Amino acid sequence: MDSFFELNEQQKRQLIDAEMLFSALEQAEAQAIRHRGSLFWREQDGGRYLISLSPHSRQRSHGPASPENELKYRQFTEKKAEVEARVKALREKVDECRRMNKALRVGRTPDILIDILNTMMRYGVAEHFLVVGTHALFAYETAAGVRFPSDVMATQDADLLFDTARRAAFMEVMKDRKMSFLGLLKKVDKTFERGELDNSTARNASGYEIDLIRRFPPDAEDESEHPLRLTAEEEDLWPVRASMGQKLLSVPRFDQVVVGVNGAMARMRTVHPLDFARIKRELSRNKDRDPLKKSKDLTQAEMVEALVGGYLPQLAKPAKGTAAGIKPGGTA
Prior knowledge:
Layout: E1 5-6, H1 9-34, E2 38-44, E3 47-53, E4 59-64, H2 67-104, H3 111-122, E5 129-132, H4 136-144, E6 146-147, H5 150-153, E7 157-162, H6 167-177, H7 181-188, E8 193-194, E9 201-203, E10 209-214, E11 240-241, H8 245-250, E12 253-259, E13 265-271, H9 273-284, H10 291-311
Parallel strand pairs: 7-10, 10-11
Antiparallel strand pairs: 1-6, 2-3, 3-4, 5-7, 8-9, 9-10, 12-13
């Protein structure tokens, strides 16, 4: 299709290998999380007791030495060593892959977004957000092994949709981490600050913005704002209500490993491309929408529909209520 620029065969092969390797690292790191902490023996009151130490320094006794505890200790330590060795080996391979990705110009997702997605994953809050808006196009084009025209992708801000239905679980994680969401962004770039006039936006010194949005209340007649801060931290962000928030949360998910300009990788969670296109079309017809944005909405909707039709036909009729995710290359 004339509207898209296809990656060459070498780039496509590299993209497929990169995604497989990154997925393997994700699985290994998830297993490593289950083996965080440690088990050790403690001499106490003339006996020998098996003690577990959690990642948050909480200790628990498993009782005195016994064949069962000896086996538990041996199995845990052996598995922990095995998992840590696998994670280390995979991280080294992923770093090699990153260099090859960069050399072959496989990716063009903004590096800072890659870092933010990985940081959210590392701190255990990625599942509470969806990347929506223009940046979702990076997931779609990567899945198809093509490039959208640059003018369709032009933006300096990323929209993150927060799932307020799971806010309690999110706040529990952040409280445990003793961190605000703005603090998490500062882990990526210390120059991120909350907007002076818009407390739903964080902006860094380069002008890159993270805009936080959320759904409207379940009651369609309720038009009051209902201010909501992400965490208890006074300086944290306040997601603003988006008219399409509920629709975006109710459609099938689309997960895709994306690649940055520097070759680094991250998993992007967004919405199914055809739902993205449908919602963008609705926005383009909204009489209250900024005319400049309406034109871009329609263009993006048409481009994504063409992408699915030409490169991702397996996504043309998604199973309702199921997540979608495919290998790069689309029709391979």
